[in-house]
Amino acid sequence: MDTLERIKQQIAENKVILYMKGNPTMPQCGFSSRAVQTLAACGTKFAHVDILANPDIRQVLPQYANWPTFPQLYVNGKLIGGCDIITELYQTGELQKILQEVA
Amino acid sequence: MQPQDIQKILASHLPDSQISVEGDDGQHFAAVIVSPAFRGKSRVEQQQMIYTALGSHITSGNIHALSLKTYTPEEYQQR
Predict the structure, then answer these.
(1) Which residues pair with B18 in a beta bridge?
(2) Chain A contact for B64, CB < 8 A?
């Protein structure tokens, strides 16, 4: 399966999935770390893909998503945002709503 | 890449918008964009419009880091 197909399958099979640097236990970047903490604060289970361990995904996903940076949070197949947007949506309570709808 | 280059590119894609771009090392920039074209769009969609406009400048690494704030005119007034 090529990289783009793998990405599409991951996003389709996981209602909440975070593409990040490192893993939730040991994030390798401050922005990824903040995204993990915010999702944890919402009490949501989420899948993750470590893009440092998957350089092909790191290369292909930004073009496919038209989004140049990581982390990237997808809920129900839709790009919700990176660290800034996740934080902003959490502060306004919208993130909790979005996540409750798929729980 | 200079802030005014980015400002010009964005202005050509987003008419009737207020665009301010800062950054003095040629690689890291911060932009604030107030545009009527953002009405009805999610935060992700608004920023994707910016990335589309800047296209190869982002993918080539000419712009290493771009911090974005996007507002509709109404949102900007309410700040």
Answers:
(1) B34
(2) no
Task: Tell me the residue range of the domain where A47 lies.
Answer: 3-102
Nearest-Cα residue of chain B relative to residue A89? B43
pLDDT in tens, A29-66: 999 999 999 999 999 999 999 999 999 999 999 989 99
Residue A65: per-residue pLDDT:
94
* B69 closest CA partner among B14, B26, B29: B29
The domain defined by B3-78 folds into GMP Synthetase; Chain A, domain 3 (3.30.300)
* A82 band by pLDDT with thresholds 50, 70 and 90: very high
> Is the CB of A68 less than 8 angstroms away from the CB of B58?
yes
Q: Which residue of B has its CA nearest to A69?
A: B65
